[in-house]
C-alpha cells in the first residue's frame, strides 16, 4: 500500500482522516490562497486543493508517496468567504450569513508521482437569524478566527445551523465519502489496518 501523506495543518482534517482508519503522516504546506481575478468558487477550491497536494508531494522524498490536499470555502451569493482577517470581518461574515442559506465547498486532491485526481463536495447550510450581540459573543469565544466563513459547524457554531444538505464532514473540512472513494482508486483501503 502507498504511504499516505495529509498535506494539511488543520487538526480537523487530521481527526476526520483518523476516523476512517487509514494510516497517514502529515506534511503541511504554505501556499498562496489569494483568489485569482474573476475566479469562480468551485475553480478556486479545486485549484488550492490541487496546489496543496502537489506542493507536499514535491517536498516528500518517498517515491511511492500519495498526498491528500484539501481546501474549504464558504460561498454566499457567489462571494467567497475565507477565514476572517479580523474581528470586524468576522462579525460582518456572521451578519451576512444570518437567517440565510449559503454553500460550503470542499475540494480534495490526491496525487502520486503519476497522477492527481480532484473531487468536489458541495453542501448547503441554512443559518437561523443571529443577533449582533450573539455574533460578538461568538467571535469572543475564539472559535471563528481560523474557520472559513467565520464559523465551525462542529463547535459552538452548530447552534446557528438550522439545516444542512450535503456532507457534514465536507463542511468540517474533509468529505469522508469522497475521500474514501479516491483512496480506493489509488489502492488504499479504509480501516484495513485497524482489525
Ligand atoms: C465552514 C467550516 C470551516 N471549517 C474550517 C475547515 C478548514 O480547516 C478551514 C478552512 O481553511 P482551509 O484553507 O481549507 O484549511 P486550513 O488552512 O485550516 O488547513 P490546510 O490548508 O493546512 O489544510 O475552515 C471548520 O472547521 N468548520 C466549519 O464549519
Question: Could you explain how this protein is built, in words?
Answer:
The protein is α/β, with parallel strands linked by helices. The protein contains six helices and seven strands. α3 crosses α4 (132-140). The longest helix has 19 residues, at 41-59. It is elongated. Bound molecules: thymidine-5'-triphosphate. Thymidine-5'-triphosphate is lined by residues 8-10, 12-13, 28, 52, 70-72, 74, 83, 104, 147-149, 151-154, 171-173.
Task: Provide a short characterization of the protein structure.
With 195 residues, the chain is an alpha/beta fold. Helices cover 32% and strands 24% of the residues.
Any idea what the radius of gyration is? 17 Å
* Structural class by SSE content: alpha/beta
The proportion of strand residues reads 15-25%
Total helical segments: 6
Bound molecules: thymidine-5'-triphosphate
Instruction: Please mark out the parts with pLDDT under 50 across 5 or more consecutive residues, or reply none.
Output: none
Q: Helix fraction?
A: 25-40%
Rounded mean pLDDT score = 96
The H-and-E topology, N to C, reads as EHEHEEHEEHEHH
**So what's the overall shape?**
elongated
The main pleated sheet reads as: 7 strands, mixed
Task: State the distance separating the first and last CA atoms.
Answer: 16 Å
Beta-strand segment tally: 7
Amino acid at each position: 500500500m502507498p504511504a499516505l501523506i495529509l498535506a494539511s495543518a488543520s487538526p480537523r482534517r487530521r481527526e476526520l482522516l483518523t476516523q476512517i482508519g487509514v494510516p497517514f503522516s502529515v506534511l503541511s504546506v504554505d501556499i498562496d490562497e489569494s483568489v485569482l481575478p474573476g475566479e469562480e468558487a468551485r475553480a478556486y477550491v479545486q485549484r488550492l486543493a490541487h496546489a496543496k497536494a502537489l506542493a507536499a508531494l514535491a517536498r516528500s522524498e518517498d517515491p511511492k508517496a500519495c498526498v491528500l490536499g484539501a481546501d474549504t470555502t464558504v460561498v454566499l451569493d457567489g462571494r467567497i468567504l475565507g477565514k476572517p482577517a479580523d474581528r470586524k470581518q468576522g462579525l460582518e461574515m456572521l451578519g451576512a450569513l444570518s437567517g440565510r442559506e449559503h454553500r460550503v465547498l470542499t475540494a480534495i486532491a490526491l496525487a502520486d508521482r503519476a497522477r492527481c485526481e480532484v473531487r468536489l463536495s458541495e453542501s448547503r447550510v441554512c443559518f437561523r437569524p443571529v443577533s449582533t450581540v450573539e455574533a460578538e459573543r461568538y467571535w469572543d469565544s475564539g472559535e471563528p478566527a481560523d474557520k472559513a466563513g467565520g464559523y465551525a459547524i462542529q463547535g459552538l457554531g452548530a447552534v446557528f445551523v438550522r439545516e444542512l444538505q450535503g456532507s457534514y464532514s465536507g463542511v468540517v473540512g474533509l468529505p469522508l465519502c469522497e475521500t474514501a472513494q479516491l483512496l480506493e482508486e489509488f489502492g488504499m483501503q479504509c480501516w484495513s489496518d485497524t482489525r
